[in-house]
Design brief:
It is a single chain. The chain is of the alpha+beta class and 499 residues long. It has 2 domains: 137 residues, no CATH class; 277 residues, no CATH class. It has 13 helices and 17 strands. Strands 5, 6, 13, 14 and 17 form a 5-stranded antiparallel sheet that branches. The longest helix has 25 residues. The relative contact order is 0.13. The model has no long low-confidence stretch (mean pLDDT 93).
Length: 499
C-alpha cells in the first residue's frame, strides 16, 4: 500500500461514536444477543475503521466530504445489509487493493466484531482466539453462517398437494427445527412443574425472597430480605407487595392499580435490606451486615416464594398473585424429581450435570456471592432451575445423537448443535438465583447487568416455557434473528493468486 488510506488523513470520530453508542439498544439480529462477551467492540466502529483503513484517501476536498459521509452511512445498523451500500464499499476496497480482497487478521478476536465487519466489507477475514467460549462464538458468527447458511432451493408441498420450489436457509431451518424439538421434549418432561392457571394464564416467573431469622432474642421472626416491594412501577401502572405483620409472621398483600388500594403511608421503594443491613418488620431490630453474611455462611438463611407473575395469552400486560401452598408443593416435587434425574445423568455421563466446581476465591474482582455461602457454581441455581437446565442440556445432547442417526453430516450437525448450546447458555443467564425482576418494564433481567456477580436479595425464577422474557422461547427468537442476519452477508469471492 503505497497510497495513503482515508483513516490516515481523517475519520468521522464524533459521528461514528454516536452511532456506536446507539448500538447498545439494538437487539434483533445483533451479535450481542447471540452470546455475551464483555469486550466485544461495537459493530459500527469496527465497520467504519475497517473501511477507512482499506480505502484510499481522496485527493480533492469534494470527494473527501463524500467519502467521509459514506463512512458515516456505512456505520449505521440499518445499512448493515443494504446491498447498495455493501456493494459500493466492497468495490471501493477492491479498487484500492489491486482488485483483490484484502486479508484481515484479528489475533485477539474475542466476540468477533472486527473480523465480522471485515467479512461484511468483502475481506478475507481470519480470527484467532484461545478462549474456547470465544472460539465457539466466532464459529457461530463467522464460519457457520457463511458455510452452511446460504439459500438453497427445495421442493415443498402445500395443503392441496401442489409442489413448488422455494429458497430456504438450511442452517436456519435446522436450528429452528431442533430448537423446537428440544423445547417440546423438555416441556413434555418437566412442563408439569410450571402449571398454567385455571383461566389459562401462564406463569412468567416466581418471585423469591431470601430469608434470615431475626437476631433479637425476644423475636426470632423470619425476615424476608427484599430490596424494595415494587412489582410494577410504570407511569400508568403502580403495583406493589405490601408487607404486614400478623403475630410474629410477615405476610403480604398485593396493592395498587387493579388490586387493593395502596396505603398512603406505604413507600414500596423502602425494602428490608440494604448493603446487607437488614431490618425486622416484626420488632424493628436491625441486623448488621457482618451478622447477615455470617447467617448465610452458617446455613441459617432460607428462601421464600412470595409472588407469581402471570400473563394471559391474548391480553397485554402482567398480573400478579401471592404464592400459595400449592406452588410450594409443586416446587418440592420438582426438587425431588431433580435429585432423581441428577443421579441418573451422573451415572450415565459419569459427571455431575449440576456444575460442582468451586467459584473463584472470595476476593476475586466482581464476585460477591461467596460472602453469602455460595461457594460452588451449582449454588447459583435453585432446585427447579437446576432441573430445567440439566433437562435442556440432556435434550441438546439427544438432538445431536438423533441427527447422527438420521444421517446428518457430522460437521454440519456440530454447527446446528453449537447454536443450540449458545441458546442453553442464554437460558442459564436468566435461570439462576441472581436474575432480577425489573419493575419498570415488568420483565426478567439476566444476572449480567454488569461485569460482576453481586448478591441479590430477592430474585425471580423464570418459567422456561412461558414465551415471555427469560424463557427458552424468547431466547430462540433472538438467536434465530442473529443467524438470519449473519447468513445474509454476501459471500466473499476469492481470486486465485497468479504464479
Amino acid at each position: 500500500m503505497k497510497d495513503k488510506r482515508f483513516i490516515e488523513v481523517s475519520f468521522p470520530v464524533k459521528e461514528v461514536s454516536e452511532i456506536s453508542a446507539k448500538e447498545k439498544n439494538i437487539r434483533h439480529g445483533h451479535i450481542s444477543t447471540l452470546h455475551i462477551w464483555w469486550a466485544r467492540r461495537p459493530l459500527a466502529s469496527s465497520k467504519a475503521t475497517n473501511s477507512a483503513a482499506l480505502i484510499s484517501a481522496p485527493e480533492d476536498a469534494g470527494q473527501w466530504n463524500k467519502t467521509r459521509q459514506f463512512i458515516i452511512e456505512l456505520a449505521k445498523w440499518e445499512n448493515s445489509l443494504n446491498p447498495r451500500v455493501i456493494e459500493k464499499v466492497r468495490r471501493d476496497i477492491l479498487n484500492a487493493n489491486g482488485g483483490k480482497a484484502p486479508r484481515i487478521l484479528d489475533p485477539f478476536a474475542g466476540g468477533g466484531s472486527i473480523p465480522l465487519e471485515a467479512l461484511r466489507l468483502g475481506c478475507e477475514a481470519h480470527a484467532i482466539e484461545y478462549n474456547p467460549v470465544a472460539v465457539l462464538i466466532l464459529k457461530c458468527t463467522l464460519e457457520y453462517p457463511q458455510k452452511y447458511g446460504k439459500p438453497v432451493k427445495k421442493k415443498v408441498k402445500d395443503d392441496f398437494g401442489l409442489i413448488s420450489e422455494i429458497e430456504a436457509n438450511p442452517l436456519f431451518e435446522d436450528v429452528k427445527k431442533w430448537g423446537n424439538w428440544i423445547l417440546e421434549k423438555a416441556k413434555k418432561e418437566i412442563g408439569r412443574f410450571y402449571p398454567n392457571e385455571e383461566d389459562g394464564s401462564v406463569p412468567v416467573g416466581y418471585i423469591w425472597a431470601r430469608t434470615i431469622p431475626c437476631q433479637n432474642p425476644s423475636c426470632g421472626a423470619e425476615i424476608p430480605l427484599m430490596r424494595q416491594f415494587w412489582l410494577a412501577k410504570k407511569k400508568n401502572k403502580k403495583v406493589a407487595l405490601y408487607p404486614y405483620v400478623k403475630g410474629k409472621e410477615v405476610k403480604f398483600k398485593i396493592v395498587g392499580d387493579g388490586y387493593e388500594k395502596m396505603p398512603s403511608d406505604f413507600d414500596p421503594s423502602k425494602g428490608t435490606v440494604s448493603r446487607a443491613i437488614a431490618t425486622c418488620l416484626v420488632c424493628g431490630y436491625t441486623i448488621e451486615a457482618n451478622t447477615t453474611r455470617k447467617l448465610f455462611q452458617e446455613g441459617k438463611a432460607g428462601q421464600r416464594m412470595v409472588a407469581v407473575v402471570l400473563h394471559k395469552p391474548g391480553t397485554t400486560g402482567k398480573r400478579y398473585r401471592l404464592a400459595t401452598e400449592e406452588d410450594l408443593e409443586i416446587f418440592k416435587e420438582a426438587e425431588k424429581y431433580m435429585e432423581e434425574k441428577r443421579q441418573k445423568l451422573m451415572e450415565k455421563w459419569r459427571i455431575d450435570p449440576v456444575p460442582d466446581e468451586e467459584l473463584p476465591p472470595k476476593e476475586t474482582l466482581g464476585f460477591r456471592v461467596q460472602r453469602y455461602g455460595m461457594l460452588k457454581w451449582g449454588d447459583l441455581f435453585n432446585s427447579r432451575q437446576k432441573l430445567a437446565l440439566i433437562t435442556f442440556t440432556e435434550k441438546v445432547r439427544l438432538a445431536y445423537k438423533k441427527m447422527m442417526e438420521e444421517g446428518y453430516d457430522k460437521e454440519y450437525a456440530k454447527a446446528v448443535v453449537s447454536y443450540l448450546g449458545l441458546a442453553l447458555d442464554m437460558l442459564a443467564a436468566f435461570t439462576n438465583v441472581l436474575a432480577r425482576w425489573e419493575n419498570t418494564s415488568e420483565a426478567i433481567k439476566q444476572l449480567y447487568s454488569r461485569q460482576a456477580l453481586p448478591m441479590l436479595w430477592d430474585f425471580v425464577e423464570a418459567n422456561p416455557f412461558s414465551g415471555s422474557s427469560g424463557s427458552s422461547v424468547a431466547g430462540q427468537e433472538y438467536y434465530l434473528k442473529v443467524l438470519s442476519h449473519l447468513s445474509q452477508i454476501p459471500p466473499v469471492e476469492h481470486k486465485e493468486e497468479e504464479g
